Inverse folding.
């Protein structure tokens, strides 16, 4: 357990420091954030044709309300925590790869819901927007990371037990 915790924190620190570096920011984080912004708007335009995106900005043409998807709002840090947990845990590389791929998709899917809900909440009530942004959604995203990790642990545990039972037959 101590090995897992130390490895987890080491990986988190390395990835967070790397994320803050200029090459990673310009080569990955900013384009990724812009992509998340545009996917959010693409989803919203299915029911709201007045929403637009540019770079990391989402705005409503009618109300003028806008949000900027900043660091911490793009899901990268949540993804780093999940990635570090799955890399630190002793599992096969196949199980890790499957868990990381599906886990990051799950985290980003919830993050899209977060961005869209906050955009409309902000147009409705700025106080509720601030509360949901700073408290509710921060906790829900990290809870999502924890739940994805726990589901993955259960899955690899079942895979491991399944491998043993096949070996006995």
């Amino acid at each position: 357990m101590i090995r897992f915790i130390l490895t987890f924190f080491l990986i988190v620190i390395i990835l967070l420091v790397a994320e803050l570096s200029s090459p990673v920011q310009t080569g990955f984080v900013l384009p990724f954030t812009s992509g998340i912004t545009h996917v959010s708007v693409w989803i919203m335009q299915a029911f709201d044709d007045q929403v637009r995106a540019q770079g990391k900005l989402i705005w409503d043409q009618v109300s003028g309300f806008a949000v900027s998807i900043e660091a911490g709002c793009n899901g990268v840090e949540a993804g780093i925590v999940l990635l570090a947990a799955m890399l630190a845990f002793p599992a096969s590389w196949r199980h890790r790869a499957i868990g990381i791929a599906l886990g990051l998709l799950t985290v980003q899917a919830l993050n899209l819901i977060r961005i869209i809900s906050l955009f409309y909440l902000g147009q409705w009530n700025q106080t509720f927007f601030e509360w949901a942004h700073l408290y509710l959604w921060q906790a829900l995203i990290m809870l999502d990371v924890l739940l994805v990790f726990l589901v993955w642990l259960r899955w690899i545990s079942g895979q491991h037990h399944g491998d043993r039972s096949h070996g006995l037959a």
Observations:
- Residues 126-168 form the longest helix (43 residues).
- The chain has a mean pLDDT of 92.
- The longest strand covers residues 51-54.
